[in-house]
Amino acid sequence: MKREPVLIVNQLNAKLQIGDKIYPVVEDLSFELIKGQTLAIVGESGCGKTMTALSLMRLLSNPLSLPPTGEVLYKGNNLLTIPEKEMRKIRGGKIAMIFQDPSSALNPVYRIGDQLMESVALHRRLFGDEAVACVIEALKEVHISSPEERLYDYPHQLSGGMKQRIMIAMALIGEPDILIADEPTTALDVTIQLQVLGLIKQLQLKKQMAVLLITHDMGVVAEMADEVIVMYASNKVESGEVNQIFDHMAHPYTMGLFNSRPNDSSSKGNLKAIKGSVPSIMNYPEGCRFHPRCPFVMESCKKGYIPNFEIKNSSHLAKCLLYDGSFVSLEKLKEHNLI
Fold first, then answer.
1. Of 173, 207, 229, which marks where a domain is finished?
2. Cα separation values, 253 from 4, 104, 250, 308, Å
3. Which of 37, 161, 283, 311 is 20 to 30 Å from 176 at the Cα level?
């Protein structure tokens, strides 16, 4: 039986205003975060993943960004409408975020211990020796060696992997219900990436947090996720349980992401890239926004609203006319051996 969600997102919309024009960056996005489980949002750069996370945390920059609309329900409150003073108590405490570049997230002129103790004071109301003990325990949890000495280090004295562990410790110090990890391994080499992902998974199991993982890497999705949302050009184009997605990738964009992963043959320079690039928010195509790049494109894809379709009568959904049951789409599925 599915557990009670700790966060419910209904029809989230985020927009940018450039001059006198308004452009969507997240459109009608809905999902739930479940205690102890990981939801991955995956897609290329520019698809709306990070804007989703910043919208949830109310960290979009003004005046370029308009206030996000919809519902982000946490403990019965809509985080998009509560006063900023209340949101500050939740942000970084009960809902914490790890950013993709720890070097820019840490203040270069303050010692590690000072930055961590600021979080302890804000979210745990601990000071003095109690705060120091709490920080040392947090550093031990993320496997920082000699934590008593690291308190006096500046960020530039630490490796990229160590800085990311510090960021994880800072995120977890407020004992969050929800952890948002925005490309947490992008700036790290492969070995350290695996260590950081393993650490997040280990701490999630220990603390039963819900994790929202933002990534472009389908390999990370396979390793970490319970459920998956695939985003493209501000839209959710496919969603479902991780096994549903990997066993039966339905949307052509998801197939393209999966096929573009590096493998043994790609090491010889044979990466199967998706043709073209993500369209600018100022120039989204009509109809399905993926149709200019899609190998399965039909005339019906080029105009009008594209609904979500259930795949095999399940919770697996795809925003694609290949599954509308029409003669043309069935023939296209047969042509590409998809049925």
1. 173
2. 31, 32, 9, 14
3. 161
